[in-house]
What we know:
- The protein is of the alpha/beta class.
- The protein has twelve helices and 13 strands.
Amino acid sequence: TKTFGILTAGGDCPGLNAAIRGVCRAAHDRYNMTALGIAYGFRGLIEGDSRVLSPDDFSGILTRGGTILGAGREKPFKAPPAHGDTEVSLDKVEAIKENYRQLGLDCLVILGGNGTNTTGYLLAREGLNVVGLPKTIDNDIVGTDRAFGFNSALAIGTEAIDRLHSTAQSHSRVMVIELMGHKAGWLALYAGVAGGGDIILIPEIPYDIKVIGRHLEDRARDGKTFSIVVVAEGALSIVEDKMDKKEKKKYRSETVTPSIAYRVAREIEAETGMETRATVLGYVQRGGIPSASDRVLATSLGTAAADLLARGEYGRMVALSGDGISSVDLSVPAGKVKTVPRDHYMVDTAVSVGTCMGVE
Ligand code: F6P
């Protein structure tokens, strides 16, 4: 019988526990395998921090948010800083390989986003047996139609937009809401359409504040007393691209988390004179229970990962493909980010219902 290590790396998201349960239940009940839970992502594998998971550990966790294993952003292959850091990453890779051997692992199951699956690909090239699962609220993983976590975050973002509508209407204001998504605009685009945002700004489409101003003024002329602007956090890159190095450094140092929402709100007030407020939804988008759809996706991806383990099909990431579950070589997601194509049907859908995407 096989023994595998399982870890959750990168930021957490709803559905991680459902996926852990899916992998471990199928591996235990159908294939009689042993699961070792590795703590805090790759850090646990570097430090040898793991424990055997018994059926009790993966029972009753389907609906729980976060991850029972703990998450971590350790990237063992990342180049070390030029000086001052004694922990050379090569040592970390060697430590991982050594602990993999010492723990007697036949395979490593990694639950994560782009960074994690890239690390998985590199570890597979180092000779380790790896199976990846795609999780992220950003939905930016190449090789799968959807990652689990996205649907839950979409529901939270949509509810926030719904709630902003009533207060925007009461005060006749423009409300700007910033959603996560890292470098991609999926979450803002989908939540913006679901919540009826009047303007949606995503990093893939550079916006023109004059166009935004005109759209808001047109709405006011049509008798609309308020407007909702949904902006993806990644749209900050559009603003930063126009800055020189010094300006960018100053801008970044001004806040713990640089925000595009406040900047857009200020630009709107300057352009239109309309009273504007900003909301940064933040980590609430990653918290709490997974949606039904994410539970289903995480469970099926989890059990499919156990099937790959049983068949000894390593170096692959399980994926949603159309209406079925498949798998792709780990080289497919490695080092890539799936962004919103300009001609994506959802951009067209948004424009067709009168939403301004920041350009004419
Ligand atoms: O990848 C998920 C995500 O929540 C992104 O949307 C966001 O940019 C990032 O993680 C935040 O990272 P951290 O948890 O390290 O602050």
